[in-house]
Amino acid sequence: MDLCVTIKGVSFLLQTGVGILGNTVVLLAYAHLMYTEPKLLPVDMILCHLAFANLMLLMTRCVPQTMTVFGMRDLLNDPGCKVVIYAYRIARALSVCITCMLSVFQAVTIAPAGPRVSKLKPALPSLVLPTFAGLWLLNMAICIAAPFFSMAPRNGTVPAFTLNLGFCHVDFRDNLSYVINGVAVSGRDFAFVALMVGSSGYILLLLHRHSRKVRGIRRSQGGGAETRAAKTVITLVVLYVVFFGIDNIIWIYMLTVAKVSPVVADMRVFFSSSYASLSPYFIISSNKKIKAKIVCAAEQDQPSMDNQESRDK
């Protein structure tokens, strides 16, 4: 196997394995929290849904990509490609939308009391599920064209205006369809990223302006959890914006050429999937509830391992 192919395959394998493990741990921890606690906080519900969207993204994009890099062919037929590409597009869209939702909800949570904010804050828990439903419906509608352009790879040369994903082809047939699809997807992403950056900037401004005052209040009222949550949100937003920028620089380049090199397409896949792979570890490191569940599970496993070793002796 060629060295470049081996490096690419190992990179995708590590990214996929690390991402699936991290997001699965987050989902299992929240599943246990839902079982042991009467109700999850809005931020916890959003982080749980983000982990699910990221896991869905990795399963529908990185897993088949990794299998293709290592030489597996004919993974999917035409209907299979349509389902997988549609699911991937929705998962990718949900990742940016839910990160934006997280940022907006956290900005409202820590916003100073006011006539409008005071009415909105108590309603936040009841708005989480309707917002999820609205984001799913919105992105299912925006991505509805994906199945019509997706197909299993054909023998021979790849036509112009076709994205060669390795395991599937996305054939836009003409330049107009290619550009319209790119503008629609990029327009949605840029709108949510702009809202995400704006709300995160507002969070930073609040934390900076009221740092001393807020620190004194939170010590007496136990509000430090909100500050930690705000810092987690800022970290996730910065992480997303970095990878989003790289992803869209490559995507804009891809829109300017009729035939996209597989290497360029692979680079875009890797960077666009990096947020889904790395974000669960930032969630785990900054969320005391998830940390506690992981530590508790590890401590429960340790006595059983010790007992097994003593029996073996």
TrEMBL record:
The keyword Transmembrane helix is assigned to this record: yes
Bilayer topology term: Multi-pass membrane protein
GO annotation, cellular component aspect: plasma membrane
GO MF, one example: pheromone receptor activity
Gene3D superfamilies reported in the protein's UniProt record: Rhodopsin 7-helix transmembrane proteins
Stored Pfam families: V1R (PF03402)
Signal peptide as annotated in the record: none
Subcellular localization, as worded in the UniProt entry: Cell membrane
Protein name in UniProt: Vomeronasal type-1 receptor
Protein source organism: Perca flavescens
